[in-house]
């Protein structure tokens, strides 16, 4: 399973990239809105200058397919590794098909059941993004969804990659890996939590104390 970072903050992206574990970036309109005064396209240029190979998801805001396609073409022109993120709607599916036919990579987002993932994949989505945390929030099991999508894609030989999204804590990451997600897109704070273990810290302290004796 690969790691993407789920942020539009350039400092977080730089820091995560320096760790050598970063396979890509996902953004969404809420994450971009947190970056006060930043122009979306300018930020995408900065991100793609930092992350030159991995996919960088940029989401459209139009609700109709024509608008999504026009926005998608503009976003994709920013850098070759831009992936156009589209909502899981009828219009989003039409736009996914059209952009895929143009050779543009797509990420269908806001997926909450297996049928949505299957439809997105059949429309040509490069990535599908089931939202774990938001399902857990309403008392449904987000991880079961990851497992079901992985199984369906496996049975039917579907190549679309599963991005476990809306990740809230380290256990989501471990479970997503065990249940067949291809990628976990994690907020920076979760990435930092993944590194930590109290026994690692204690071990370092003990080694240094012994060394200094
Ligand atoms: C994924 O691509 C989304 O940007 C993100 O994971 C949503 O997470 P949230 O439910 O914590 O907002």
From TrEMBL:
> What is the catalytic activity of this protein?
D-sedoheptulose 7-phosphate + D-glyceraldehyde 3-phosphate = D-erythrose 4-phosphate + beta-D-fructose 6-phosphate
Q: Where is the active site?
A: 85
The record's annotation in PROSITE patterns points to:
TRANSALDOLASE_1 (PS01054), TRANSALDOLASE_2 (PS00958)
Keywords from the named record: Cytoplasm, Pentose shunt, Schiff base, Transferase
Q: Does the keyword Transferase apply?
A: yes
Q: What is its EC number?
A: 2.2.1.2
SUPFAM superfamilies the record matches: Aldolase (SSF51569)
Q: Where in the cell is it found?
A: Cytoplasm
Q: In which pathway does it act?
A: Carbohydrate degradation; pentose phosphate pathway; D-glyceraldehyde 3-phosphate and beta-D-fructose 6-phosphate from D-ribose 5-phosphate and D-xylulose 5-phosphate (non-oxidative stage): step 2/3
For this UniProt entry, the molecular function terms from Gene Ontology, in alphabetical order, are: transaldolase activity
- Tell me its family: Belongs to the transaldolase family. Type 3B subfamily.
The UniProt entry, under PANTHER family, shows: TRANSALDOLASE (PTHR10683)
Function per UniProt: Transaldolase is important for the balance of metabolites in the pentose-phosphate pathway.
Question: What's the protein called, per UniProt?
Answer: Probable transaldolase
- The source organism is Oceanobacillus caeni
Q: Please spell out the taxonomic lineage of the organism that makes this protein.
A: Bacteria, Bacillati, Bacillota, Bacilli, Bacillales
């Amino acid at each position: 399973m690969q790691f993407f970072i789920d942020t539009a903050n350039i400092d977080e992206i730089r820091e995560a990239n320096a760790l050598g574990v970063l396979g890509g970036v996902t953004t969404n309109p809420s994450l971009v809105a947190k970056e006060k005064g930043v122009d979306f396209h300018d930020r995408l240029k900065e991100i793609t200058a930092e992350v030159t190979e991995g996919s960088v998801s940029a989401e459209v805001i139009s609700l109709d397919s024509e608008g999504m396609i026009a926005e998608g073409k503009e976003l994709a022109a920013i850098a070759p590794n831009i992936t156009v993120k589209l909502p899981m709607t009828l219009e989003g599916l039409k736009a996914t098909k059209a952009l895929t036919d143009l050779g543009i990579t797509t990420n269908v987002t806001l997926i909450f059941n297996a049928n949505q993932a299957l439809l997105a994949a059949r429309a040509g989505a490069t990535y599908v993004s089931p939202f774990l945390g938001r399902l857990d929030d309403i008392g449904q099991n987000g991880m079961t969804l990851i497992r079901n999508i992985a199984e369906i894609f496996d049975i039917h030989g579907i190549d679309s990659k599963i991005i476990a999204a809306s990740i809230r804590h380290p256990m989501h990451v471990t479970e997503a890996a065990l249940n067949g997600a291809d990628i976990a897109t994690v907020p920076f704070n979760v990435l930092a939590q993944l590194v930590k273990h109290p026994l690692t810290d204690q071990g370092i302290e003990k080694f240094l104390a012994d060394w200094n004796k």
